[in-house]
Design a protein that fits this description.
The chain is of the alpha+beta class. It has helices at 21-29, 49-57, 95-106, 110-133, 141-157, 164-175, 180-203, 209-216, 222-236, 238-253, 255-263, 268-279, 311-314, 349-366; strands at 32-36, 42-46, 61-62, 137-139, 287-290, 294-296, 299-301, 306-309, 371-372, 381-382, 389-390, 394-396. The longest helix has 24 residues, at 110-133. The radius of gyration is 21 Å and the shape is globular.
């Protein structure tokens, strides 16, 4: 049996871009390590790439226990609010919810994504221009990444132009540090807004994700549709915004890699994949529970035990990626698990990649002299939430 680990899962990173050293040490010893979750529930930490894929693809492991046994003591988050307690396509595994998830995935059609690609390029360029006019310095998180990705969600969901300013303000309130009162107010406002949006889509069909869901399955309830919109909001906003900002931070810290992408824009897609693999902003989880005894990579996981996958560790597994700790935009980074794997693979991965590519391109085009405005050690990073990133990223040009 592998060694026991502390009851509180460590999220402390020794530097900006690498997983905690203790997590890497666990992976070097075994792909699964015995872990004690808060409250003493028995379980395992998965750090190997092959073992992670096996767990995430195995129907003997369910996602239903994720909320009950988080890997770190849970602070108040959006998941605690009543609007999400009834479940969403990403939180349960009964037949109806799986069907909802399949319907959502089907809405990211090639035609819709081609149209979204054109829109994202224009939106990223406009946001970069706004940041440039307000310069010569800015916060890349608050002035570019967050507003750009929230506007992208407006486009995907079909939020009317007249409502987008209010929608973005509420999204930013809960995405940035703030008081519980402000976050609660913003979340309630978003819930009401999304509910009204669902009602509007029923009355006035439109060619967007919500309109497509209603057309594909008219029997979906208003609650199901609102919950789906929340899922997209939670899964697609902060993750994409922080992935973009942290990726630019990494490029600024690797000037040769940045110069290579500037000189050869065909490397942009590779840079995006390397940002996803190398940084893995979902830095603890996903978490599963064993429905029955199951053997994973030679380790017996008992029914009822919790298994947490460390995506940052799996995406740095030397058995899968050569020199995995090296940031290299020219590598073939396909096969990383930044969007998960199996039945719960992120349905919006194509939209996220489109946003990252368009955002990075717009910044390279608009800011040839982009650089950090403060020493790297002064950039505040947050590690107390499931999504890793910078609170602020001061830049100048």
């Amino acid at each position: 049996m592998t060694q026991a680990v502390p009851a509180t899962f460590s999220t402390v990173r020794e530097d900006f871009f690498n997983p905690p050293a203790v997590i890497r040490e666990f992976r070097e010893k075994a792909p699964l390590t015995r872990m004690a979750f808060p409250g003493g529930h028995p379980g395992w930490l998965v750090t190997g790439h092959a073992a992670a894929r096996a767990v995430l693809a195995d129907p003997r492991f369910t996602a239903r226990a994720e909320r009950g046994h988080p890997p770190v003591p849970r602070a108040a988050t959006l998941e605690e609010f009543p609007a999400l307690r009834h479940g969403s396509p990403g939180r349960t595994e009964n037949t109806g919810r799986r069907r909802h998830r399949e319907l959502l995935t089907a809405q990211f059609t090639p035609r819709r994504m081609r149209r979204f690609t054109e829109w994202a390029a224009k939106a990223a360029g406009k946001q970069a221009a706004v940041m440039h006019r307000a310069g010569p310095s800015a916060d890349l998180v608050g002035d570019f990444a967050l507003p750009y990705t929230s506007l992208a969600l407006c486009e995907l969901l079909g939020v009317p132009e007249a409502d987008r300013e209010t929608f973005q303000r509420d999204v930013h309130t809960w995405a940035l540090p703030g008081t519980t009162r402000d976050i609660t107010r913003a979340f309630a406002s978003l819930g009401a807004h999304l509910h009204h949006l669902v009602l509007r889509k029923r009355a006035e069909p439109a060619d967007d994700l919500l309109g497509g869901l209603i057309a594909a399955e008219p029997a979906l309830s208003d609650e199901d549709l609102t919950s789906t919109a929340f899922l997209l909001l939670i899964a697609g906003h902060a993750t994409t915004a922080h992935q973009l900002a942290l990726g630019v931070f990494a490029l600024l810290q690797h000037p040769r890699q940045l110069a290579a992408v500037r000189a050869d824009r065909s490397l942009t897609d590779g840079a995006v994949e390397e940002m996803l693999r190398h940084l893995s902003v979902v830095h603890h989880g996903p978490t599963r529970a064993a429905l029955e005894d199951a053997e994973i990579d030679g380790t017996l996981v008992r029914a009822g035990e919790i298994v947490m996958v460390s995506l940052p560790a799996a995406n740095r597994d030397p058995d899968r990626f050569e020199s995995p700790d090296r940031f290299d935009v020219t590598r073939d980074g396909t096969g990383h698990l930044a969007f998960g794997h199996g039945a719960h693979h992120c349905p919006g991965d194509r939209a996220a990649r489109i946003q990252l590519r368009a955002g990075l391109t717009a910044l390279l085009d608009r800011f040839p002299g982009l650089r950090l405005a403060v020493p790297p050690q002064e950039i505040p990073l947050h590690t107390d939430t499931q999504v890793y990133g910078a609170h602020r990223l001061p830049v100048t040009w």
